[in-house]
Design brief:
mainly alpha; 9 helices; membrane; transmembrane helix
Length: 183
């Protein structure tokens, strides 16, 4: 095949030799361009026939890609997620369940996500029951909430240096929620 293509190129060159002047120069430029394309194509074909790239290369993976493959993967992921959600209790699927679970384990999520919500609830309940908030009267807030709950909710709580340090624990958060409900 390669020799036949080069032979055809040589036969095509013969009529160009009969041309004169500028026409011959332009014809030779076109011929040289087409010859270059032909040689590049022949090189690609010869390398492909040698098996120069492994079967697991990104090139072969892209060549084997089929339309709809990404959609099938996405649907498969959604089906697995739906099956997992069907086996979980409704409380575990609540949007705050993940925040509470993460806050119990690590202080970073507790301080950034759960603490402001709990402080807002505590301020609202303390304002409704006694007319004060955590920041207004810390002594009365400590008496109303209890020492452990107040320590978790106090307004002047410092920002933790290590956000990955252990969180307060699920028992402490549950105790805090119970104390807030009791107000």
């Amino acid at each position: 095949m390669p020799l036949a293509a080069l032979g055809a190129a040589a036969v095509a060159l013969a009529p160009l030799l009969l041309l004169d002047g500028l026409v011959r120069d332009e014809a030779f430029q076109v011929f040289a361009t087409l010859l270059g394309v032909l040689i590049a194509w022949l090189l690609v074909q010869s390398f492909d026939s040698l098996g120069s790239h492994p079967e697991t290369s990104p090139f072969t993976r892209v060549r084997r890609w089929q339309p709809g493959q990404a959609a099938r993967r996405r649907i498969s992921l959604l089906v697995r997620k739906a099956r997992r959600n069907a086996t979980e209790p409704a409380e575990a699927r609540h949007p705050l369940a993940g925040i509470i679970r993460d806050s119990a384990r690590r202080i970073g999520p507790y301080h950034a996500l759960l603490l402001p919500r709990l402080q807002a609830i505590a301020d609202e309940r303390l304002r409704a029951s006694g007319g004060f908030t955590l920041a207004d009267d810390p002594a009365r807030a400590r008496a109303a909430l209890g020492d452990d709950t107040f320590e978790l909710l106090r307004a002047d709580r410092p920002v933790p240096r290590d956000k990955r340090a252990d969180g307060p624990g699920l028992d402490a958060i549950t105790t805090t929620l119970d104390a807030l409900e009791a107000l």
